[in-house]
Amino acid sequence: QVQLVESGGGLVQAGGSLRLSCAASGSVFSVRTMAWYRQTPVDSRELIALITGTGSTSYADAVKGRFTISRDNAKHMVYLQMNSLKPEDTGVYYCQSYASWGQGTQVTVSS
Three-state DSSP class for 50? Predict the structure, then answer.
C-alpha cells in the first residue's frame, strides 16, 4: 500500500494554468502506474491521465492536448500540468495508484 498526498489545487480563471502534485510514500514507486482522476458535482469519478512505470502516458479525450502528466521517480512525485483550463475542468482531483487514493485537491475554474 502506498500513501498519496495531493497539492496544488486552487481557483483560477478560464484559460489559466495550474500544476497539481502528488507525493507518494512507500517502496517500488518507480514501477507503479500512477493516475489522476477528477470528480465533479455532476459526474462520477473519471480517469483523466495515467503514467506507467516506463513513462507511457494516456489521457481522457476531454483533456488531451491541454494536460500533461509526468513523474519524478527520484522524488516519488507525480504531476499534472493543466493548461488552457475551462470551467468544466472544475472538480476534485485525486491521485491514484492501484488500491491507494489521495484525499483530493479542489480545482475551481471561473468563467
Answer: strand
